[in-house]
TrEMBL record:
This is Transposase. The lineage of its organism: Bacteria, Pseudomonadati, Pseudomonadota, Gammaproteobacteria, Chromatiales. InterPro entries: Homeodomain-like_sf, Winged_HTH_dom. It comes from the Bacteria. Residues 100-153 form the Winged helix-turn helix domain. It comes from Thiorhodococcus drewsii AZ1.
Amino acid sequence: MNDYRLSDEELAELRAVHRRVRDIREAYRINAVILLGQGRGVKDIADALLLDPETVRSYFKRYQKGGLDELLRMSYVGSEALLDSTQLRELDAHLQSTLYQTAADVARYVEQRWDVRYTSSGMNALLHRLGYVYKKPTLLPGKHQPVEVQEAFVSKYQDFKDKKSERT
């Protein structure tokens, strides 16, 4: 059984950093190390934080190895784009001239154009990397027609109704 206990100074430093972090992933890592440092069991901490016990142990090992910097370092960098730089420039130019309602519509265009499949969330991430954002359209009231146009429509409509009633 490993001894995960930490000194009071280390626990105080972890608590101070925990109060300052805004990323929930960092907070969970610090929580796990604090709880282990207080002498609580790995399984209990894993159950409480909804983590795997091995993840809790790895957080503590990272803290021991490199301190807070190592504990808070995020290793995930994402995946490469499925389109090359030429295709991305062409897609960007196409999006400048064509309006799509959803990321799924853009994904369908990309699949038809380059035979590359994206999920809606994957295309959404790609569009964000290209600098696009979704903005909900605002409703604007329609503009009314001049009185002469309205009267012409009413008379045409009245003629239409009169002719229709003659047929029935």
